[in-house]
Amino acid sequence: MEILAFGVQADETPLLAKAFRGHHEVRCLDVFLNADTAPIAAGHEAISTSVNCDLGPEVLDCLAAGGTRMIAQRSTGFNNIDLDVAERLGLTVARVKYYSPYSVAEFAWALAMAVNRRIVRASRRTRDFDFRLDGLMGRDMHGRTAGILGTGRIGEAFARIAHGFGMRLLGWDVAENPACLDLGMTYVPKERLLAESDLVSLHVPLVPETSRLIDGPALKAMRDDAVLINSSRGGLIDTAALVDELRAGRFTGIGLDVYEAEAGLFFLDKSLTPVEDDVLARLVTFPNVLVTSHQAYYTVDAVTEIIETTVRNVLDYTAGRRSENVLVPRS
Question: What SUPFAM superfamilies does its record include (predicted)?
């Protein structure tokens, strides 16, 4: 059968074609799945989606009516999928439960170092042959405190890098990770972590309990000179509240690879269209803020693993097998 893959980046297309070769045909589309594009899937039993696709009730109804029976999401997150509606419609849904944690952890550290050492500002200056150091002073990470919210595979990888810098480690999670404890991490309440950390990095999934985890009061609890990094999900931060704190002159640096209203923006070229999102437009004007377009996972290692798992999910579906990646089983 032919698999229809939505939201495929140019670099991913040859990897998807190679991975499916000998199993199924795959047609890659650069458009994202939403109410307008869902009719394209008519006649395709299985489709593949990315995290910024819309799989709400209207889209799922359209997919089911068109004959789709299986959705293979190419991401760990699945907050864009209405699983209850998918189950009601008899749609099988699978995701990629694990992929290289190093891709995201290393990128989170790239953001942290870039904002701490003013790398972007320095690069822009030197392009204009301005070699002054004014305003570029950073801080050693050695001896300072890293607060890690979420200590699963990615949080653990981030903690190992922080440990290599010689940082004190604070953690917050629903369960303690023995590997992080071995690194010397101390688990504390969120409020204490925010108050004591020089660097705060988010590595938790977006679920109802973590939505706006970093809200106005949480931001006010942080140190004025803290660095905040989010390479997980945009909805973990109340961005409007963050802008208010930035306007008050707080924080050494903010590194965001995700944004709570990124759907319809990230992965697309919006350079020639007016910016309608006032919060994002304001956010990117601050000199101590660095925003990237959800690229932390985007290494050949991680993407290859994601695609290979996606292929296995489709093959499991056609063979009637169920794996740990299945969110809604075949009915």
Answer: Formate/glycerate dehydrogenase catalytic domain-like, NAD(P)-binding Rossmann-fold domains
pLDDT in tens, 23-70: 999 999 999 999 999 999 999 999 999 988 999 999 999 999 999 999
Give me the CATH topology for the region 101-291.
Rossmann fold (3.40.50)
Residue pLDDT, tens place only, 60-118: 999 999 999 999 999 998 989 999 999 999 999 999 998 999 999 999 999 999 999 99
How far is the first Cα of the chain from the last one, in angstroms, to the nearest whole number?
20
Amino acid at 91: L
Catalytic residues: 233, 262, 294
Tell me the CATH architecture of domain 2-99+299-328. Answer: 3-Layer(aba) Sandwich (3.40)
| Total residue length of the chain | 331
Q: Which helix (H) or strand (E) covers residue 305, if one does? A: helix 300-319
* Cα separation, 122 vs 286, whole angstroms: 15
CA dist 42 → 3, 39, 63, 314 (Å): 11, 6, 7, 18
Structure tokens at 144: 């300072």
Threshold 0.70, pTM exceeds: yes
Burial of 277 (0-12, 13-18, 19+ CB in 10 A): middle
pLDDT at 263: 84
Please list the residue range(s) of the chain that carry CATH number 3.40.50.720: 2-99+299-328, 101-291
- Sign (positive/negative) of CA torsion 286, 289, 290, 292? negative
CA dihedral of residues 32, 258, 267, 311 (deg, nearest 10): -60
**Cα(36)–Cα(27) distance, integer angstroms:** 18
